[in-house]
Amino acid sequence: MSVPSNLPVWQQLKAHHAAIADQHLRDLFAADPERFNRFSRRFGDLLVDFSKHRITGETFDLLIELANQAQLPAWIARMFEGEMINHTEQRAVLHTALRNRSDRPVRVKGKDVMPEVNEVLEHARKFADQIRRGKWRGHTGKRIRDVVNIGIGGSDLGPKMICQALQPYADPTLRMHFVSNVDGAHISHVLAECDPESTLFIVASKTFTTQETMTNAHTARAWLIKELGDESAVARHFVAVSTNAEGVSRFGIDTANMFGFWDWVGGRYSLWSAIGLPIIVYLGMDHFLELLEGAHAMDEHFRTAPLTDNLPVILALLGAWYIDFFGADSQVMLVYDDYLRSLPDYLQQLDMESNGKSIDRDGQAVKVNTGPIIWGGLGNNGQHAFYQLLHQGTHLVPADFLAPAQSPNPIGEHHAILLANCLAQAEALMVGKTEAQARAELAKQGLSGEALEKLLPYKVFAGNRPSTSLFYRRLTPQVLGSLVALYEHKVFVQGVIWNINSFDQWGVELGKQLANAILPELKGTQAAAGHDASTLGLIQFCREAG
Ligand code: F6P
């Protein structure tokens, strides 16, 4: 395995960075009228413009060479072929099989998994059809109107993001709710909006042991039984999505109403599996299949396109360029599409749980910076909140701008204003405002002398702040599938570059262990002991004040 900084091209990139770091994007654009054409790519209805990045032709070539020296093509093949590339858990990584719309068999330990994948899809289709047609009814015979997904992390963020994003395609008679937080406020508010006779709960947990999910599921179950006065009502109001049939049946859900998936589907890569059941119920199977098709098209592109045209590869290399050579430590997602308001949260788990690692595939401490801090939000709202830091702060924060050319809600000038702001922000970050421009503006406003000189430094924008623009015609299921798969593969490519395993998440375990130890101490069934003074003091406060 390769330590990235030992690769010959790493040193070349370092030297190249030193040579070009001071070049301004303004000048790069001025020097090359073909820059946009050279550094943008089309993929179906998607346009990816990466010309506003601090790269030259040489940078691009060196970054592609980095992918080659890190053996990226071989790693891509290993993932698609079902090798155990999640080596710390001895698992294959095959979320791509879930959206394999070709006839190509996908083998795990020699066995083709496609028949099982298609069987679960068929089960989900039948179930969703019954709900949508009013054939599956609640215990008292009422039609299902509210669907509550109870899950957390990958069992929540993906389905929630997709259901919101594709709401124009949804069945308007259904209301979707997502309960993830163990704070009782979350489930209380959702239950208050639901009629027990017409509510379906989907308990979604890969392990079926996650404390937050199981606590919420038990609360929902108790509420239903109390409201309907009959324990047998659970059968018509609860279904499960899990890999743990034993846990599901122990909870009291008939495994005939369980939708399974497999250990080769990571939680944060699972929206394409039965974890997508809320999507299938809300949008219908046809739209879910379009989502899978969009993702499959991106998979095929990733598997077969040359590295120089390969979108996940390009985005990953640009990310690494800033993280490892410019010292950038975060990446902001600027979403100019209200339907995608949950995308930053979704991408945060995808990226940070995958590449927030400091031990490499050989068990050694990494010597380079790895996954960035992912943050962001709706673009226009951000403009009036955090963009100040993006424009004039001391951090270099590469940005992704996402926007649809068409709006499903064409009202007056709204969409044109939205797009104008998106385009303007990317331009402003890139070009900035020189001292001479700021001086001329102030003079035009009537300022001069000391007053002008005093204000001048605050009016200058350094610019040279990089961004990628991901624009699409319309947010269709197909486009969204491609977009999500693009980011999934970007994360994988960066993991390969850094020689880390993007598919485990040991870092979430310690907190879970300690919470289990603290719980009885908080409840007072066990004396608080063995903690540092701060934790003990806080436990004491909670006990006294609680
Ligand atoms: O604690 C982290 C995590 O394991 C995520 O990786 C996962 O998506 C989430 O918890 C939920 O896990 P489960 O689906 O098993 O409830």
Automatic annotation (TrEMBL):
Broadest EC class assigned to this enzyme: isomerase
Cellular component GO terms, alphabetical: cytosol
EC annotation from Swiss-Prot or TrEMBL: 5.3.1.9
Metabolic or biological pathway, per its Swiss-Prot or TrEMBL entry: Carbohydrate biosynthesis; gluconeogenesis; Carbohydrate degradation; glycolysis; D-glyceraldehyde 3-phosphate and glycerone phosphate from D-glucose: step 2/4
Reaction catalysis annotation: alpha-D-glucose 6-phosphate = beta-D-fructose 6-phosphate
Gene Ontology MF: a single term: glucose-6-phosphate isomerase activity
GO biological process, one term: glucose 6-phosphate metabolic process
Cross-referenced CDD domains: SIS_PGI_1 (cd05015), SIS_PGI_2 (cd05016)
Active site: residue positions: 353, 384, 512
Protein localization: Cytoplasm
Annotated keywords: Cytoplasm, Gluconeogenesis, Glycolysis, Isomerase
HAMAP family the record matches: G6P_isomerase
PANTHER family according to UniProt: GLUCOSE-6-PHOSPHATE ISOMERASE
Assigned protein family: Belongs to the GPI family.
The protein's role, per its UniProt record: Catalyzes the reversible isomerization of glucose-6-phosphate to fructose-6-phosphate.
Protein name (database record): Glucose-6-phosphate isomerase
Record organism: Candidatus Competibacter denitrificans Run_A_D11
Species classification: Bacteria, Pseudomonadati, Pseudomonadota, Gammaproteobacteria, Candidatus Competibacteraceae
